[in-house]
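Below is a filled-in request sheet from our internal design queue. Each sheet records the structural input a requester submitted and the sequence that came back. We keep these sheets so that new team members can see what a complete request looks like end to end.

REQUESTER: design group, bay 2
PRIORITY: normal
MODE: inverse folding
CHAIN LENGTH: 427
BACKBONE (tokenized):
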């Protein structure tokens, strides 16, 4: 006789054991990836970097990330999430700190590329990890809970950037260097916490009963069966239409997101006339708006793949509207409101494609499939900051860059609708 399992209580207990550490890790990752946007306000002047040089450095991160994405996720599947995520955090924390000591464009490119290599596989690795603990109907909820780290990190960056930059000159060190060092060190500490405390998989979790482990295994097996048989080769996994299309949807989104994120402080300072503290408040407001967007998407997306993809498309149309306000407004109010609407809609939408993909492909294909989809997405992330920097240098403003991003956001919405139709036909 199979013992009864209280599903809700079990999921809540699993969430308490896994999500806080994952959330904190992603929080630190986003800060270490994007804090260069605040450092750039004074770093570019101190080092003589143009917008193009800065854009190439910001993009170099995503080149390193994309190249190692699939191998890193395969290593996570082999060595376990606890060991591999801790390794990722330790190396990216060290590299984040060392970035504070660059002097030349080549050194800047090298450190950003190395940071991408170090962090490669983290986000799809987390999705893969959560797929071993949460079945499909609970997974979207779990992903939305750990994804709350994104708005929290945005709020934190906006709040602490000004005080850290104000340390300029203390002990003979620039303010932007203090920012990079002090925001990079927590990753090193957190790596030690992960290796000691993060549970690897249900089969080794002593805090689960035999009945609970059995229920999880059966539930996940049913989802795996519904997704179909795994591919016969890695090549077939990487060529899966759902992998490529959902990766492309986020690639189009990330062209816009990363162009704006890595230049937001300079954009807001120039077009809205804000000082560092004022920029920080608007960036923090964007973080609050992302949090509200996540709450809204959790109500709209529902449990079905089709509805989730429709929600993604709707948020990307809203992101395009935010960009249109940012481009056409021409006033400080329109700059601030357009930025907040865009960043909330686009960043919220960014969590959905991999969550959907984890339900559309078999368990045996998830490590490679999720990583490949995210690799495709990082190609868009790579293109955005470079294109933005070149246009800013050639035109002397950010207007042309903003206008160029609108069709990318709309194309992301259209791609999601294509995937929706394919998924309905497959079902």
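RETURNED SEQUENCE:
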């Amino acid at each position: 006789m199979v013992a009864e399992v209280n599903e809700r209580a079990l999921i809540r207990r699993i969430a308490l054991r896994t999500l806080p550490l994952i959330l904190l890790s992603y929080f630190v990752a986003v800060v270490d990836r994007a804090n260069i946007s605040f450092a750039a306000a004074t770093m570019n002047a101190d080092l003589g970097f143009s917008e193009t040089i800065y854009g190439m450095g910001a993009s170099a991160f995503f080149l390193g990330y994309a190249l190692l994405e699939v191998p890193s996720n395969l290593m996570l599947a082999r060595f376990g999430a606890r060991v591999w995520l801790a390794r990722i955090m330790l190396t990216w924390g060290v590299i984040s700190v060392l970035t504070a000591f660059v002097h030349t464009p080549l050194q800047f490119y090298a450190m950003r590329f190395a940071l991408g290599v170090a962090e490669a596989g983290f986000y799809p690795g987390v999705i893969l990890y959560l797929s071993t603990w949460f079945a499909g109907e609970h997974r979207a909820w779990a992903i939305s809970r750990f994804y709350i780290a994104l708005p929290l990190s945005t709020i934190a960056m906006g709040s602490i950037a000004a005080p850290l930059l104000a340390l300029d000159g203390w002990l003979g060190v620039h303010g932007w260097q203090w920012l990079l060092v002090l925001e990079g060190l927590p990753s090193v500490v957190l790596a030690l916490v992960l290796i000691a405390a993060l549970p690897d998989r249900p089969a080794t979790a002593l805090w689960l009963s035999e009945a609970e482990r059995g229920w999880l295994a059966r539930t996940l097996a049913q989802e795996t069966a519904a997704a179909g048989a795994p591919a016969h080769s890695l090549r077939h996994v990487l060529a899966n239409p759902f992998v490529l299309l959902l990766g492309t949807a986020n690639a189009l989104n990330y062209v816009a997101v990363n162009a704006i994120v890595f230049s937001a402080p300079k954009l807001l300072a120039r077009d809205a006339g804000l000082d560092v503290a004022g920029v920080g408040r608007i960036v923090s407001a964007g973080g609050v708006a992302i949090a509200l967007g996540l709450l809204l998407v959790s109500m709209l997306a529902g449990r079905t793949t089709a509805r989730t993809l429709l929600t993604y498309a709707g948020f990307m149309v809203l992101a395009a509207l935010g960009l249109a306000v940012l481009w056409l407004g021409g006033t400080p109010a329109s700059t601030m409101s357009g930025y907040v609407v865009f960043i909330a809609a686009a960043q919220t939408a960014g969590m959905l494609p991999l969550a959907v993909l984890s339900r559309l492909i078999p368990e045996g294909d998830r490590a490679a499939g999720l990583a490949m989809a995210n690799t495709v997405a990082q190609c868009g992330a790579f293109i955005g900051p470079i294109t933005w920097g070149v246009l800013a240098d050639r035109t002397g403003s950010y207007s042309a860059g903003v206008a160029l991003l609108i069709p990318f956001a709309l194309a992301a919405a259209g791609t999601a609708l294509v995937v929706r139709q394919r998924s309905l036909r497959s079902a």
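SHEET NOTES:
- The chain has 19 helices and no strands.
- Residues 366-395 form the longest helix (30 residues).
FILED BY: M.R.
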